[in-house]
Amine oxidase (Aspergillus sclerotioniger CBS 115572), 493 residues
Amino acid sequence: MTTHDGYRYQASCGSFSKGLACSAVISPPSNLPGFLSDDGFDVIVIGAGYAGLTAIRDLCNLGYKVLLLEARDRVGGRTYTADVDGHLYEMGGAWVHWGQPHVYHEMHRYGQTKMLNSNEAEIGCQSFFTACIDGARTSMSLEEQERLVSKAFEVFCNVDDSYGRRLLPYPHEPHHNPDVRYWESISAAQRLDQIRHLLDDVQITTLQAFLVAISGNTMKETGFFDILRWWALSGYTVLGLYEYTETYKIAAGQSDFARCFFEEALSTGNLRFSFQTAVTGIHDQAGRVTVTCASGQKWLAKRLVCTIPLNILTKVDFNPPLPAVKTAACIKGNVNFGAKLHLEVDDTHLLSWVATNWPGTHIFSCRGDGITPKGNTHIVTFGANKDSLSPQQNAQEATAELNKIQPVTVQQVVWHDWVKDPFSGGSWCMFPPGYSFRYLDALRERHGNVFFASGDWAYGWRGFIDGAIEEGSRVAKEVSVCLGRLKAVAASL
């Protein structure tokens, strides 16, 4: 099957195409109608990303009649696997780790614990390269790079003389220690100014490149607290940061994994679904929620789970309107406007190659991430995408920028523009300075009969697959308790 999502540019012939082969596509796109009644469904879930998939799975297993509405033609949300010429490319969320508790629990549940290691240092050049604006270019071994990056991140994150351990002793409870308020209020740029004198030029250049690759925005717009949370969740070390966030991928691909949730829910007989169905309105009145779709069709349920991403939430008409604090949170939003591109380049030489580029335009960091069936290197890059022009120019300019960093022959580019995607409006979630204490709890609060679940406001691995599963599980429990009480009241009458 081919999803409408994603792009492919074949450099050798200048061919450009939209849509990628993907096992996450659901066909037929709907199994409606079915078990409709005057009361409609027990629950409507909007969105088939991991938060929505976890919610439908849990609620269907509890016996509730659930309707899933998804604007895309596939499951997975901001995560899907493209199969291009027999090679799997993770277009969005990719890396997982056994230290991410929610995702690894589900991997065990579905027998998906076989993983691939992205960091194959045994093959290829085994080198690190960094370039900066004044033309300075530094090459070194991966061991030297590890020491350089470790020093830079340790200085950057050492806010308490214990590398963050005292300030963030419980990383899954981000506001546990009130002393983090100051650090939550400053930007990554302000923190760098505080410690700049402790690092040399190469360390500063490399650190900045990695930080903006993580955040998808300028250091001024990136909250320092978000970087500190990644650091703490990864065990307060650079080796942990590498291992938890960019080393291990599910061998079968994220799309195969996402289908496991969907198919378990479907097997209960309690799930109805409609893909390619964008929601435009949510009306909560008299104990019932009415959902209006772009086609004009309406659906009714006792409760609703909304997993729409933070930057898209205000595009839906809520009646009654969302609380002012939640609206303000959406307007300020996720500041990650990053770009992830996959490039297939000749031979295997760059499989163990890592590079940073500061300041970059399309590429801030890149690394080898596998060998294609043609015997070429798969390079994954992270950069900026907010001001990109056409998709074709995106691919051509990224190819040119990679060649400035490392002369290569690019065979093809495969990517998804998450920033211009009308159903995401950005990449994995990163908060600006001063956001978390003000808005995080408000984003998680229900609004009447509408419950909100998204990896964008998870307490733990926010912005990761793990955080989305955390949220879907949380809200499914809250909804089931609510419906259980409703059922008990009805039985007593």
